[in-house]
Specification:
This protein is an alpha/beta fold. It contains 14 helices and 13 strands. The chain has an eight-stranded parallel β-sheet, with helices on both faces. A three-stranded antiparallel β-sheet has the order 2-3-4. Strands 8-9 form a two-stranded antiparallel ribbon. A hairpin with a 3-residue loop joins strand 3 and strand 4. The chain is globular and about 55 Å long.
Amino acid sequence: MVYDVHAHCIPADAIRWMERHGPEVGIEVGSTDSGKDSGKIVVLDGRYRTAPLRIDLTDRAARIETMDRTGVDVQILASWIDLTGYQLDRAGGICWSRALNEAIAAEAAQAPDRLLALGSVPLQDPSVAAEELHRAMSDLGMVGVEIATTVDGRALDLAGLDEFWAAAEELGAFVLLHPMAPLPGVDLARYFMDNIVGRPAESTVAFAGVLFSGVFERFPALTMCVVHGGGFVPFQIGRMTQGYRQKPGLVGKHLSREPIDYLRRNVYVDTVLNEPASLRFLVDLLGAERILVGTDYPFEMGDLDPVGFVRSAGLSEPDVEAILSGNAARIFGTG
């Protein structure tokens, strides 16, 4: 069984909810005359305007067909990160998170042997986020949560999220860390750098803040998957370690061990790397047991042949089996 842990979805029910109830909570659905998309855009709290909603984020038949064609047996659905709704106020955030979670859970239930689901929570209110995570996993059968790299512009380590982290640890939630609004204030519009450089850099900054603020020290059973191969974290872990050794009162203030130890204990990365040598490096650094298949479906910067990519890296068969299926089966309790 091949698992894809990094895939996105906007259920039709969620779009209908936004059109019907969105204005009550600060969500507006507008129109655009763009080509291949749905013709709709979303504006959150009058401030954040999404790109046009893609039809393939909603089309279940196309999703299953792509899974069949690319050898993916089970896909873990997560919302499109632009729709997390951290810009909304407390009341609006919880209403939207509840509606979105119900829509994604219902979407996964349409193909229960092929689809699992991650929830979305209103991190702008950590207490409410913890409550919604409990509901999503206990009542809706979701397997974890997708979170963005900032909370309406605030870094994760500065957003007072301990109540949420505690709930995630208690529930054994699979926490997928996904970049959003990469590096605000840095001009990355040219050469598509906002995506190819900005997104992994955004994940790197967010994860470093979580790590160095001692989140994994306070919540040692918490696990997090950092998409796009962990951003630039694995490739600069030596520099992080050097900082820990040379500036222990600053870098290591909240840590009891070297940064690499937390990566090997608390962190997973996905295979959205697009270069076999990078995957081999991650296996050497972290071990195959910390690596999970991802596709970033349906986006073109993802991996259109995930099984072929893993097999192209020249890994041992046990390592290939662990990455394709064994690790995810262990995490999600299906193997």
